[in-house]
Amino acid sequence: MRLPVPRPGGALCNMRSSLRCTLLALLCLASPAGAGTSRWASREPLLIGAIEVLTENPTQWRRLELRAQIHGTFETPFDEREIAVDAEVATPSGRTLRVPAFFYQEFERRVRGRADGTSQEIMTAVGLPEWRVRYLPAEAGRHSIRILARDRSGKAESAPIAVQVAPAAGRGYIRVSKRDPHYFEFDDGTPYFAVGMNIVEGPLSEYYRWIPRLAKNGGNFSRLWIGHPHFALELGPMGEYRLDAAWKLDRVMELSEEYGIYQKMCIDWIRHITPRGEPRKQFDLEDYAYSVSNGGPCRNMRDFFELAEARRLFKNRLRYTVARWGASTHVMAWELWNEINAIDRSVRDDRTLILDWNREMCRYLKSIDPAARLTTNSLGSSGFWPEMWQMPENDFAQMHNYYGWHRPEDEELARDMAGLMIKWLEPVRHFSKPYLFAEFGVIREKPEIRALCDADAQGVHLHNGLWAPLAYGAAGTGHIWWWGDYVDAKNLYFHFVPVARFVEGIPWTTARFRPIVVESSHEQLRVLGLRGEPLTILWVQNRLHTWWRVVHKEPVPPVPPSELTLAEMSDGRYRIEIWDTWKGGVLSRAEARATGGRLGIRLPELARDLALKIHPVR
């Protein structure tokens, strides 16, 4: 029997008879909340009922959604050992795919204003829970789909149903480029360069503003923490998943698809597991399901990474995550953990254990994800584990760093955001894979530093953090952390426009970009660049134009007209475009000739920074 879901506060929704109330009460008494037991526990024989295609006019590269009536015997529908439901899809080309199904609950959302001017989201369950399948057809034609189910009583399978998929254009999923492993591309070979920022958590109502604003200013990338309380599945008793949070995350992904934002989904982030009654610590959720206090197996973080049962339970969450959101091409990658080296000291230095866990979870994700999309991990500020980026299971490398949390020797450097990025990208650029500066900024947790950040009202540190990685060979801009109370609050989205216009059309995966040697006639210039075939790109910065000097109103004298000399250039004529990095667009065009492998370029007076595209004239 499929039972209705309790509304918040314990009232039951959509109760049609007193018999159902009685049955649900008996079931709850028989199966108290605890490890592996949920409010959705069932005692019915395994049976697959009707299967309904919910998607009208199924189309290639568009998510296809099905609903299946499933009855079974299980303590929780979120444990593969209790019940596993999959779709077996036979494609027109003869391939057979296994797509995991997931347990679903529909919700209604209301937003109610509070007296203090803030708003409250009220989620109300609608109807009965059900099993759903989401599948992305990469082929047009006739697909044959049957549902497979297994519980502790046995196995069942449905008769196949036929779904005709109409042809449509699509770029597919994001991959590491086969032509240049330092960059990303879609399945169809179109390059993907990640322009955006972290937007990791917040009320759903805020996403309806954040995502369109980022996209309308040229952004195509964001990062979500789907382990954060706003979207977390496993908060509360082990065996319960927060289906209201999953429903909200569905809406975020729909927005992302509508506006062309590709999400790096960070699956977890906590740093401590502390049993209830012990002192709480930062990044320690009292209601984290894996704690022994909630029926989980763990008394600390070492247990989480070490115990076989904890690993098994985490794989259940990965399975659900893939089942529910894996059919979206706008999931750019699965990121296992936020700053996994920043966890509790009882395990943080045990690299062998953490890397073993990392390897196992990435392999599992690729084995169950029909798209076999990118997987990775992340380390905290200044963290560098070469073993992590040598691991083939981590498809790309990442770095985080900030002003305000550094070792003393780094604090001075962090006053120059571009200089900070160059230093910390250097260690991760040598693994023949894409690399990103995935978090940066001026921290806001300390009041005195928050005041410094707010004083950078024009976003100089954001600006320099976008451009420096681009010209240093990264596969995206830098991705700033404080999206809501800095970028959004100060309406700094305009910084994404020039960089998005500049990177448009750059052949990242075919130009064979490599660092270029540039001589400048003025020591106050910083020049970062990549020489490619046929295109060469440069970012030229007045070294003194840093956020620190601007905030402290220190002099930033412009660099007088100067000259750059590029080495190892083929002899011949070149067309030079000088770009405005603050407003976007070409400031000027000129031609110059390279002789003896050297090309000279004249620059105008430079107050802040500019970018160049250099094309050979055929």
Please tell me about this protein's structure.
This protein has 618 residues and is an alpha+beta fold. Helix content is 23%, strand content 30%. The strands form six sheets. It has a nine-stranded antiparallel beta sheet, covered by helices on one side. Strands 3, 4, 7, 8 and 9 form a five-stranded antiparallel beta sheet that branches. The protein has a five-stranded parallel beta sheet with strand order 13-14-15-16-17, with helices on one face. Helix 5 (308-325) runs parallel beside helix 6 (351-368) and helix 9 packs parallel to helix 11. It is globular.
What structural class should be given to the helix and strand makeup? alpha+beta
Across the major sheet, the strand order is 20-22-23-28-25-26-27-24-21
Instruction: Please summarize the sheet with the most strands.
Output: 9 strands, antiparallel
Summarize the amount of helix as a percent range: 10-25%
Span of the ends, CA to CA: 73 Å
Count of runs of 4 or more consecutive helical residues: 14
Number of strands: 28
Mean pLDDT: 92
Name the poorly predicted regions.
Answer: 1-35
Strand content: 25-35%
Shape: globular
Cα Rg: 26 Å
